[in-house]
Amino acid sequence: PHCPTYATHHNETESPRGRIALMQALLRDNLPLNEQLTQHLDSCLNCRACEAACPSGVKYGELIDGVRARQWAQEEQPNRGKIKLLEITASRKKLRYSAKLIRLTQLSGTYKLFSKGIEHLTKAPPDINTLLPEPLPARKNWADQYPAINEERGHVALFTGCIADICDQQTLRDAITLLTHTGFRVTIPAQQACCGALHHHAGDTAHSQPLAEANIDAFADESIEQIIHCATGCGAHLMEYNQQLNTPQADKFSLKVNEISGFLLKNGINNLKFKTLKTSVSVHLPCTQRNVLKQATIPFELLKLIPELKIEPLAGNHLCCGAAGSYMLEQPKMAQQLRQAKLDSLQRSQHSILVSSNIGCAMYLAAGLRQQGQAIEVIHPISLLTRQLIH
Ligand code: SF4
Ligand code: SF4
Questions:
Q1: Where in this chain does the record put each 4Fe-4S ferredoxin-type domain (predicted)?
Q2: From CA 231, how far away is CA 160, in angstroms rounded?
Q3: What is the best residue among 131, 240, 359 to mutate for testing ligand 2's pocket, by most ligand atoms within 8 Å of CB?
Q4: CATH number of the domain at 271-388, please?
Q5: Fold of 145-266
Q6: CB of 161 sitting under 6 A from ligand 2
Q7: ipTM, 2 decimals?
Q8: What does each C-alpha distance from 152 to 148, 159, 174, 274 come to in angstroms?
Q9: Is 359 in the pocket of ligand 2 (CB under 6 A)?
Q10: What's 289's DSSP letter?
Q11: Among 181, 189, 237, 211, which residue's Cα sits nearest to residue 89?
Q12: How far is 369 from 361, CA to CA, in rounded Å?
């Protein structure tokens, strides 16, 4: 089966068909939004494997997002931890401040105590603290622009994301290196915000809509030819701002959104030279890359540019890794079960590098590896490529 929850439970109410029937009954007021119904809907990963496989083209993602917005509005006992997480990611200021505080406590050896206190105060799910690298890297500010190296062939803007900009600036720096080396001037609009995917998929329209509008404004400069992202989770949502907002500005924005690896492959990366790397990598395909961006072959094509690198798909790539936005925090049992299957496949492969094009999946898989004491590096394919670049 395509559906990870159906594959696990073999229960119709945990399948796409079952959930569609439940959602339709709910929307027609034939069923109340009771605990049992909520449970079946909440256990859906919104991985959209069912949508990609659906012969009738049912837009499952839109359907579940709509129902979740209704659930969010009707929630009598909202999850405080989740609300806090959505509030912090929606604000760059709060996110950067929190990251600074976390880094400080990590370096001073008081992080465990600090995170226990935060967990208690916000009722945040305990797993959130295992996700962060220790210590968090020190965040550096971006320049407004990075000029093309040699002759300029175009002007693009980079979407930095919220979590990536505090946990994984390296991938963003590598994107700038490859873009400028292929002849692109790169702008980093300072006013950009989190994409709002977490908020949108949770049904929190009060945050998701202003975030989408802020990004549309931040990237409105007519001279920007493409908006490049390095996380397929963010990109899948940026690409669908047009569906969310239904305005000419959103249409224009969504049309410009482009994933870094696919963009580089179409725009001259083949002219760069890369050093040989005699090792094997496993490629994890995030659901958003496979089911929404429909780019299942892209990371493989990109990595082929590294001479002698052996590239293999991670077994079980047709199923979600369990990260799925904030799912890993809200449904930890199911999420960990899905992740364990990936970690077991990785162990069997005996590869020392795992590449993933989505920050959420990469952080969740890396946390699992750390917990198991496995020294396998998890990086973005463009970082591996940049490491091998001959300048
Ligand atoms: S989105 Fe994923 S988990 Fe949800 S019903 Fe579809 S296949 Fe199953
Ligand atoms: S997809 Fe996730 S990481 Fe990317 S900007 Fe949106 S909320 Fe942040």
A1: 35-66
A2: 9
A3: 359
A4: 3.40.50
A5: Glutathione S-transferase Yfyf (Class Pi); Chain A, domain 2 (1.20.1050)
A6: yes
A7: 0.88
A8: 5, 20, 18, 21
A9: yes
A10: I
A11: 211
A12: 12
> Is residue 334 a contact partner of residue 322, using CB atoms and an 8 Å limit?
yes
* pLDDT per residue of the chain (391 residues) written in tens, 0 to 9: 899 999 999 999 999 999 999 999 999 999 998 889 999 999 999 999 999 999 999 999 999 999 999 988 887 766 777 787 888 889 999 999 989 999 999 999 998 888 887 777 666 666 777 888 889 999 999 999 999 998 999 999 999 999 999 999 999 999 999 999 999 999 999 999 999 999 999 999 999 999 999 999 999 999 999 999 999 999 999 999 999 999 999 999 999 999 999 999 999 999 999 999 999 999 999 999 999 999 999 999 999 999 999 999 999 999 999 999 989 988 999 999 999 999 999 999 999 999 999 999 999 999 999 999 999 999 999 999 999 999 8
- For residues 321-336, one letter each, b for 16 or more C-beta atoms within 10 angstroms of the residue's C-beta and e for the rest, the string is bbbbbbbbbbbeebbb
* 60 C-beta closer than 6 A to ligand 1: yes
Radius of gyration of the chain (CA): 21
Ligand 1 atom nearest the C-alpha of 51 is: 6
Residue to mutate, 94, 163, 238, ligand 2, most ligand atoms under 8 Å from C-beta: 163
Helix (H) or strand (E) holding 283: strand 280-284
- Nearest ligand to residue 23 Cα: 1
323 C-alpha to ligand 2 centroid (Å):
12
Q: Domain residues of the chain, as ranges?
A: 4-74, 80-131, 145-266, 271-388
Question: Which residue CA neighbors atom 2 of ligand 1 most closely?
Answer: 47
